[in-house]
TrEMBL record:
Belongs to the class-IV pyridoxal-phosphate-dependent aminotransferase family. GO terms for molecular function: D-alanine-2-oxoglutarate aminotransferase activity; pyridoxal phosphate binding. It comes from Savagea serpentis. GO terms for biological process: amino acid biosynthetic process; carboxylic acid biosynthetic process; D-amino acid metabolic process. This is D-alanine aminotransferase. Homodimer. Its EC number is 2.6.1.21. The lineage of its organism: Bacteria, Bacillati, Bacillota, Bacilli, Bacillales. The gene is dat. It is an enzyme of class 2 (transferase). Its cofactor is pyridoxal 5'-phosphate.
Amino acid sequence: MVIVYANGQWVNENDAVIPVDERGHQFGDGVYEVTRIYEGKPFMMREHVERLVKSAEAIRMDLGMTVEEIESLMMEAVERSGEKNCDVYIQITRGIAKRGHLFPKDVKPSITMTVRPMEVIAMEERLAGKTAIFHEDERWKNCYIKSLNLLPNILAKQVANDAGAYEAILIRDGYVTEGTSSNIFIVQNGELVTRPLSNYILAGITRMRVEQLAEQLNIPFVEREFTKEDVLEAEEVFMTSTTNEVLPLVEIDGTTIGSGVAGPVTERVAKQFLQTV
């Protein structure tokens, strides 16, 4: 079942209340993470929580909890939910205070969390692939922070949806950065290529795992910038995220990628990922 945690209380999802002066509500002044649980086991939870802490540090917010305490709270939520395969969403904001742009003093962070059953993508559907479009990257310059400020991502994702596509691949200064909620990989001359980490992209946890899997599978892994043209001419393209895992993109802006279904490299990586979670 769905479980909700709100500032120290476990409540029904319809009973959770956020005060009007909560800074996440007022300003989007906070950070978040989504961690997946497979058969009761957290997948790379430590990496997710460490990234949460780094995001908080980047916006000069003291979480007031250790990594271990956050992990314990998340696992308590999972246990209370009774779910074995689920997604844990945790959001921490700068707290509740009278509206004002300056950081409030002597205010505790506000913590909310939900646990929901995961949405499983069947392997047949996964290997059939999804479609995408290109869209200008209109976000700010600190995309490495997993902040609540997602309006440009939402708008780009909606543009993709309106065009009948699943994802929007973002372009900045002529080069691919990432998707609206994913990292982007291409297969080029047999190499698995993704953009190097920088302030313009999120250091994806699934991206990290794919790099590890590439080494296990003896697939050459390369970090370099690539263009829209590189994507359209690639042998294969796929996206990665916590909730999508490894998902092929088989048509982009109306151009078929490869054979129009998941290519051999993508299929190997996707299957290996699911076998090792």
